What does this fold into?
Amino acid sequence: MTEYQRTAASAVADRTRVLIARMAPETPSSVADDQRLVEDLGFDSIRLMELVMALETSFALTPLNQEQLVEVLRVNDVIDLIAGHVTEAGGRE
It folds into this structure.
C-alpha cells in the first residue's frame, strides 16, 4: 500500500467515525473501531438506515444492498464496507 493509499484509507476511516458519532443516539465522547452499533452506541433499525443513507451521500456511493449490510455490526465493519466501496469507485470520496 502506498503512502497515498494509507492516507486515503485513514481519511475514509476518520470521516466514517465522525459520521457514526454524529448520528449515534447515545452521543459518545469518541468512537472506537470495536464498538457495536446497536449495543454500545444505541442505534436502532431506523437510525441504522439513516446512517446508511448519510454514508452513501457523504461518500457518493451507489446504494448499498441488504446483503452487504447484514454482517455490519461494529464500527470497523462500517469502515471496511465504506473503504471497499470507495476503492471500487476509483478512490473518489
In short: The radius of gyration is 13 Å. Residues 23 and 51 are 7 Å apart (CA to CA).
